[in-house]
Here is the input.
Amino acid sequence: MTAPWALPCPVCGRPAPGPGPVPCPSCGLPAAGEAALVIARIGATIDELARDRDRLLHTLRAAAPAPAYAPAPAPATGPAPRPPAPRPGPVTGPPVLADPPLPGPAPVAAPLPRARRVSPQQVLLGLGALLVVAAAIAFVAVAWTRLGIAFQATVMVTAAGVACGVSAWTARRGLRATEEALAAAGAALLAVDLASAHALGLLGLDAVPPRTWAAVSCGVVAGAALVLGRLTRSTVTWPLVALLALQPVPLLLVPVGALAGPAGVGAALGLALLDLVAGPALRRAVARVAVVLTAGWAGLAALGGVVLAWEGRPADSWTATGLLAAAGALALLAGREPRLAAALPPVTTVAAGGASVAAFALTGSLGQLGLVGTTAAGALGTGLLAVAVPAAALPVARAGLVGGGGVLAAVASLALLGTGATGGLALVLLLGTVPAGLAAWLLPGLRRPATATALAAPALAALLAPEAGLLDLPQAGLVVALVAVAGLALATARAGRPEEPVAAATGAALGAVAGITSASAGAWGQVGLQLALAGGAAACYGVVTGRRPAAVAAVADLVLAAWVALAGAGVGTPEAYTLPAAAGLLVVALPGIRSGARSWAAEGPAVAAALLPSALVVVADPSALRLVLVVAAAGALTVTGTLTHRQAPFLVGAGALAWVVLGRLGPYAPLVPRWVTLAVVGLLLLVVGATYERRRQQAREAVAWVAQMR
Here is the structure.
């Protein structure tokens, strides 16, 4: 039994008929079986020659002496080896035996394919087809005054038929470039024939409305191209002409006045769907054109639908929004079909893009209801974002919810900001805290930005509330201060986690904003309260995390809060301001005191801030109570410094005592009799002179004793 005939046709690649003059049933190549047999024999001969070359090279290399260095492999001069072509059953002749594998030269990389260039033949054919079509147009435009309409119609139809027929004949002869050029010319001549028939009034066709005749003409051209494409399957032009001819038909069937409405959007979406579905059934080159057309019509429909949703009448607006939403859902379903998915972006991209476009249109439709509608759009967007957080495990649902919710919230916020509706914008921002908080809780990858957003959103809403009349400035400042406290508390609770620095920085910034907001309204008492709240929260954060800058900032906030509160209450006593500052400096210095740092770097600033201003005041503005307290404090500091061997308290206390004594006794010096002054000074000089050496030694010891204090 002979093996079945399995050689492929050299032109179309489909199984060829048996030997003889029988043409190929697919492409029409005459004697396809004989041609396939000849090509198979040529391939077998080439394979035998390649094997002979390899055997000869192996023999020569084995006989040659070993070289001093490894020579570079010689480049292959023949064609790349390929498997031998299958031999058909009817072929007779000596069998071709497979030789044992021999080591050959190192494989050489196949040369890169050259870029396809336009050949001179293609240029000539293109120009010829273009001139033929131009001649036909000129014939219709000029010769109709000299020749009859029937004669013109006959000539034009004959020319179109001849072009199409010769294209089919050249297709059977394998002349690909000529085949495509004549097919393009035939399609163009057919279109010119149909347009001429209407323009010249052939058979009363001028009574047909132009748009209707244009749609009919496109349908005729598409039908003819489909029929001719079935007859000559190797011609790429016919399916391309059919695809392009069908594009304007839906738009031509829609009335002119309705193109700017939902009907135009629906027609564009229908064309996009038609091109998408037709793509897999077309050849690769034509399928690429279908993909481009699908994207173009989809983009045009999206643009027109969004514009109609924002600018059209309410009925048209909502209809356009519904069409865009339905198109997005249909594209999502099409992405799940393997045959259509190749022409579409990834499913997540389709979901995000479709939801974003529909959300943009929905914002415009809701905006036609006024401020309430725009605010509702923003609230709906934040709700979708909140739902998207727990749906993070579902990529398609997450992409759609994030795309739609983000566009709704962002576009509605911009619209509210542009119209000055700060109340609605404040509400949208406040609702935005929910998805941000959920993201910070459930999504570790977004925890840092989500934490900052969750803290900033309510603060911004509070800052916008006074402009809308919902809160006054002091109340808004208090709300911002509470948010700042919440941020610092969160940083304290999440110490050592990635979101800690973000929460701490946001809380500190909001604390400063709160103070500025209340200060701009002159509510100094509330400013002090806000600073105290922020300072207390910062102090807790600094103590828990051990961050010294946070502790210093907390102490500064608390001291400033005390000063603001005292100033607001009208307190003018200097100690009311110096003692809180001294206490803050002492708190900041506690780590240094505990580690045994030098006194001037540790408690020195606190001691000086607490005592020296009061010592200055007690001399300038004497008061019995202040004098007693200053002297007692100075003496206590001097004794404490002496006992603890600390230089700063000793010198500050001693200096304050000396200043107070001199300041208080100075006014009474002129009242003392001169002889008493002279006698006292003289006696002092005699004592010093008599004990000069001893006093000098004691002074040196005193200076050394003070200097060696810490």
In short: The CA atoms of residues 273 and 482 lie 54 Å apart. DSSP finds 27 helices and no strands in the chain. Residues 68-115, 138-142 have pLDDT under 50 and may be disordered.
